[in-house]
Structures are given as structure tokens and as C-alpha cells.
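pls read this protein.

:::
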Amino acid sequence: MGCFECCIKCLGGVPYASLVATILCFSGVALFCGCGHVALTGTVTILETHFSKVASDHAMLTDVIQLMQYVIYGIASFFFLYGIILLAEGFYTTSAVKELHSEFKTTICGRCISGMFVFLTYILGVAWLGVFGFSAVPVFLFYNMWSTCATMRSPMANLTNIDSICVDVRQYGIIPWNATPGKACGSTLGDICNTSEFYLSYHLYIVACAGAGATVIALLIYMMATTYNFAVLKFKSREDCCTKF
């Protein structure tokens, strides 16, 4: 076997679907975790500065945000390891499916591990659908505030009293109803929208939501690849059993 044939054989064992899914998963998780962490910090700054100036009013929210930031660290670490494991499993199963190497044989243990990855990836995919939906909530809240500010600045609005236009974050359940001031109106609201914290947090939440969506797509590709490999390995195991008799 020449060098060219050997290279072609090696390239035939590359799990391209798992490779694309791994790159997409790493990118999506990195965007979600990195942007989400910074956006949460900016959200706390905005609330403390403009909507809840008494620390006790938003103490629980601060604790929840800190907990979410620690969870983000765990998510990033877990998916870094899980992506590498799935990629390695993809290399093994692809070689076994295509029978590129004689030492790569299907075993009951190997099929059980492949089935476990199929089940675990399915569970993670459903969970990330929830994460994707949850990450859209702050985007919706910031968009409402941004659109209100855009309405006040629009010359077509023809507003006579901009102080009557307010955004009350208490109605979203973010802070309690006894928080002061709890809302921003008129020029104060416009100043909030012009701050760097608001601009940065708003766009980071959008990127984090996009990252969560990319992770969902990556897990979907993982599910298709692992399910196909598991089905083929199971079929080959039955074929091997039939040829022994």
C-alpha cells in the first residue's frame, strides 16, 4: 500500500459529522458561557445603579446571578470534556463501521457505550433546548427597553411628555415590588439606554442566545451521528453472529 492509499484510508476514518459538531459545540458553548457571564455582571450593575439602589432589595437576585455564573464555569468544563469524548468515540465507531482496521471489532461493551452516548446526548439536547429558550428571556427584556428608548428618540413619535414613558422592571419579577425606584422614565430611561453597560449587555445576551442555538444544532448533529453508528454496529454484530454458524 502506497503513501497516497494510506492517507486516503486514514481520511476515510475521520468522523466528519462529529468533527463539525465538536467545532460547533465548542464555539457555541464558548459564546454562551463567555458572553453570558459578562452580560450577567453588566445586568447587576444596571439594576444596582438605576432600578434598585437598596442592596437588600436585590440581594436574592445577586445570589442567583452569582450561582448562574458558577454554573457557567461548570458547563464550559463539562462540554469541553464531553466534546472530546464524543469526538474520540466518533473516530472509533467510524473506523469500526467502515472496517478500516482489523483490530477495531464491535463488542457488547462497545455497543453499550455507544448506546449510552446516544441516550446522554439526547438528554443534553433536550436540556439545551430549555437553555436556549431561557437565554432568549433577557434578550426580550432588553429589547423592550431598547425599543422604548428608540420610540422616545424617534421624530415621528410626536411625544409631548416623554416623562410619561416608563420601563418598570418590577413587573418582570426581577426585583420585588418594594424596590426603589424600580422603574425609569423619560430622560432617565434614555440615559440608561445610552450607557455602555446597557449596550454591551444587550448585545452580549444576543450572542449568548446565538451560542446556545449553535450548541443545540451541534448536539443534534451528534445525535444523528451517534445513532447512525450505533445502529450500524448493532447490525454488524448480528451479521457477525450469523456468519459464525
Residues 196-243 form the longest helix (48 residues). The chain has a mean pLDDT of 80. Residues 148 and 165 are 8 Å apart (CA to CA).
